[in-house]
Amino acid sequence: MLKIGDKAPDFSLIADNGELISLKDFRGRKVILYFYPKDMTSGCTQEACDFRDNIKKFDRKNTVVIGVSPDDTKSHLKFKDKYDLPFTLLSDLSKKMLNNYGVWMEKSMYGRKYMGVVRTTFVINEKGKIEKIYDKVKVQGHINEILNDI
After folding, report:
1. Tens digit of pLDDT for each residue in 7-30?
2. CA distance to 81, 99, 135, per residue, from 75 (Å)
3. Of 23, 51, 99, 144, which is most buried by a Cβ count within 10 Å?
């Protein structure tokens, strides 16, 4: 289990624009790495739109926002276009990154157990260390909490 002060696991994943993106690409900037279950669902859409609506505040704090889900890049592109999302979405089809960050877990709904993404946000500092972890995120008020903390 990752904790504050740990070196954030590096990754190299395909972004919505087809480029290969790695954590090391953002050294010198703070990174908000948010993991979400699925494009186009209500909670995930609200969270993405909250980041979108506050992106200038993150920019002023030298902070980049990156969303990660197990959806493919085609789904990410539709999601970005539909909601005019100005930040990168990464596709983790293999779930390697989701596992490395400890967010791919057993979940339960209506008594049925299944594997899925537990909504989690990591703040990674300019040197690649984990500065803050928000687990089992509730979308309402989450962005303000992050902005207050950074």
Report:
1. 999 999 999 999 999 999 999 999
2. 10, 21, 25
3. 51
Give residue 103's Cα distance to chain centre: 10
Q: Taking the alpha carbons of 50, 123, 28, 17 in that order, is the dihedral positive or negative?
A: negative
What is the bridge-based pairing of β-strands 12-15 and 20-22? Answer: antiparallel
Angle at CA 8, nearest 5°, toward 137 and 70? Answer: 55
For the entire predicted model, the pTM comes to 0.94
Q: Please identify every residue annotated as catalytic.
A: 44
For residue 127, pLDDT over 90 is answered with yes
Report residue 47: phi and psi, to 5°.
-60, -45
First-to-last alpha carbon distance for the chain, in angstroms, is: 23
Class of domain 12-149: alpha beta
Phi, psi of 87 (to 5 degrees): -135, 165
